[in-house]
Amino acid sequence: MKGEHQNEPDCRKGGVACDFAEHRFHEIIQSGKSLTTPETQYWMCKAYAEMSHEACTRLLQLPPSLEAHLHKAKTLDDSAWPREPVAEWKEALRLAPGDVHIGTALAWSLFRAGEFGSALPILKELLRNEAESRELNFLYGATLLGLDQLEKAIPPLESATRLDDNFLPAHAALGQALLETGKPALAIPHLTLALPGDEDAKTYFDLFRAYQLTGQTDLAAHATLEYQKA
Question: How would CATH label the architecture of 153-230?
Answer without folding.
Answer: Alpha Horseshoe (1.25)
